[in-house]
Design goal:
This is DNA (cytosine-5-)-methyltransferase. Keywords: Methyltransferase, Restriction system, S-adenosyl-L-methionine, Transferase. By secondary structure, the protein is an alpha/beta fold. The protein has a domain at about 1-200 and about 385-400: Rossmann fold (3-Layer(aba) Sandwich), CATH 3.40.50.150. The chain contains twelve helices and 15 strands. The protein has helices at about 10-20, 30-40, 80-95, 100-105, 120-125, 145-155, 215-220, 255-260, 280-285, 355-365, 375-385, 390-400, and strands at about 1-5, 25, 40-45, 60-65, 135-140, 160-165, 180-185, 195-200, 210-215, 225-230, 290-295, 300-305, 310-315, 330-335, 355. The protein is globular. Mean pLDDT is about 80; it is low at about 230-290.
């Protein structure tokens, strides 16, 4: 079987589904497990640091691991960098069968830091049985030195190993998400898959077809370059219970909104009207946005958060790295000037509109109808921590002898 540690809501699993392969995932988060169950993915809800190894010995052909990134991510306090020497020590010890985790954990500034060493506990036990055949691991870029340590150890065990940083946009993900990747194999030379996309489209040459241009948010969502999102309207709590993190609540039809008196008209200056394809089109992430355009000289863009240095990208570009925490409700669609000097206009610029969880999932290359479970805060947390399935599929396909077809990842319906 293929074993997926820290399986989350199913980024790697969705990739394997596309490739026609099944796995078993280990995950602790309750709502991620419920999402996986709804998606039909085999899951064991457990503390990975405490789960016994014997059920897997002699049975694992591939090991996947994406340890939690909160301790290392730029979106957090990054105490993982402070704890990094302790994590390196834990990896070195575990590679020799010495379990020093309890002692090292007591010295860590962030207890999540040491989770990045857990895959080595599994790898050491499996290696004694000549397994796994291959390994694929992913984390934020700051974990690359740790992946290089893993690679060096795996080489002494007979693996070919490669560790480096890849940009998800180079593999058709509508997001410039950079990640540290470790790939290792006992049967083939390990290395990154060839990129399929580039910032600028490449022409066909004698050596074959050139790479396509990076996939934009508009392409992934099925929007036109100036289409605007549906306005946000007040409603109740999220489907999974708990507080609704957005004052806006869930989306309703505009006719309902007018009746309730909560709808504000932000019609574009050309007189186009809001005409959603269906009442649930944007709420489910499966429909075209409203047939309206940004004011002349403006375009729609996605701003990651409200910080001064927040990444803002036009919808004709890939998104920046999506991460969601307490500032999830600050990731918004907003109108921005096409040129450096904003055009003068008597028409007010449309108000920012919060991104939906379904849209965020699509930008992470999950299907539009992926069965996310939980309220919006819980879903955003799952989306932000997941591996983009399209990137995962490119990483896994060579190990499985599979080939990806151009239409294997249909996002917006």
């Amino acid at each position: 079987m293929i074993l997926d540690l820290f399986a989350g809501p199913g980024g790697w699993s969705q990739a394997l589904t596309v490739l026609g392969v099944r796995e078993v995932g280990l995950e602790w988060d309750e709502w991620a497990c419920k999402t996986r169950a709804a998606a039909g993915q085999l899951t064991i809800r457990t503390d990975i640091a405490a789960y016994p190894l014997w059920p897997f010995l002699g049975r694992i052909t591939g090991l996947i691991a994406s340890p939690p990134c909160q301790a290392w991510s730029m979106a957090g306090k990054r105490l993982g960098l402070v704890d990094q020497p302790l994590v390196h020590q834990a990896v070195a010890d575990l590679s020799h069968g010495l379990d020093s985790r309890a002692k090292l954990l007591a010295a860590c500034r962030d207890p999540r830091s040491l989770l990045a060493a857990e895959p080595m506990r599994y790898l050491h036990a499996l290696n004694r049985h000549g397994q796994p055949e291959w390994v694929a691991m992913e984390e934020v870029p700051d974990v690359l030195p740790l992946w290089r340590q893993y690679a060096a150890i795996l080489r002494t065990w007979g693996f070919s190993a490669w560790a480096g940083t890849l940009n998800a946009a180079d593999y058709g993900v509508p997001q410039t998400r950079r990640r540290a990747i470790l790939l290792a194999s006992r049967t083939r030379t390990a290395g990154p898959p060839p990129p399929t996309h580039a910032r600028v489209a490449e022409p066909e040459s004698l050596f074959g077809p050139g790479r396509a241009r990076w996939v934009s948010m508009a392409q992934a969502l099925g929007w036109g370059a100036t289409d605007r999102p549906v306005p946000t309207v007040c409603a109740g709590g999220g489907p999974g219970g708990g507080p609704e993190p957005f004052p806006s609540g869930s989306r309703k039809t505009l006719s309902d909104a007018r009746e309730r008196g909560t709808w504000k008209d932000h019609s574009p200056p050309n007189g186009a009207v809001h005409r959603p394809r269906s009442s649930t089109a944007r709420a489910t992430g499966t429909g075209q946005p409203v047939a309206g355009t940004a004011p002349a000289g403006w375009r729609w863009a996605l701003r990651n958060n409200s910080q001064a240095n927040a990444t803002t990208r036009g919808i004709d570009e890939p998104a920046g790295t999506l991460f969601f925490g307490r500032r999830a409700n600050e990731c918004v669609w907003q109108a921005e000037p096409v040129t450096a000097t904003p055009p003068s206009s008597a028409v007010p610029v449309p108000e920012p509109i919060r991104i939906t969880a379904a849209e965020a999932g699509i930008l992470q290359t999950f299907p539009a109808d992926y069965p996310w479970q939980g309220n919006k805060g819980q879903i955003f947390h799952q989306v932000g921590n997941a591996v983009p399935p399209r990137l995962a599929a490119h990483l896994l396909a060579p190990h499985l002898g599979k080939t990806l077809a151009p239409d294997d990842f249909t996002l917006a319906a």
